Amino acid sequence: MYEMKEEYKTGIEAIDEQHKKLFDIADRAYMLLKDEYTIDKYDKIVTIIKELKDYTAYHFKFEEEYMDSIGYKRMFTQKIEHAEFIKKLDEIDFDKIDKDQDKYILSILQYLNDWLVEHIYEKDKLIGK
Hints:
This is Bacteriohemerythrin. The protein is an all-alpha fold and 129 residues long.
C-alpha cells in the first residue's frame, strides 16, 4: 500500500532513497495491521517502532546536514518538525500497545501517513528546488 511515488521525489537521490525506506517501514506496519493470522503482534510492533526511531534519527541528521551545506533557508522549520517527530516516537507508551495492538498499529500508520504526505510532499520537495 505504501510506496515511494514519483510525486514524492525531491530530486536529491540520497534523500529520495532514504524516504523510500520510510515508505517501506510504513508498508510493513500496514501489512502487519492486515495480517489476521498473527494474533500477538507486540514484538513486531516494537521492532517497527525501534527501526523507525533509528532510521529517522539517521535520516534527519543526513537531511539537516545536507540543508546546512546548501544554505537552505527553511532549515529551522525542518529541524523543529524533525524534533517533533522524534518526540512523538519517544513518547510511545509500550504498555498501551499490548492492550489493543491493531488500534495502535493504525495510530502509528495514521501518523506516518500524515508525515509522509505532508512533510515529504509539501516540505522536503522544496529542498530540491
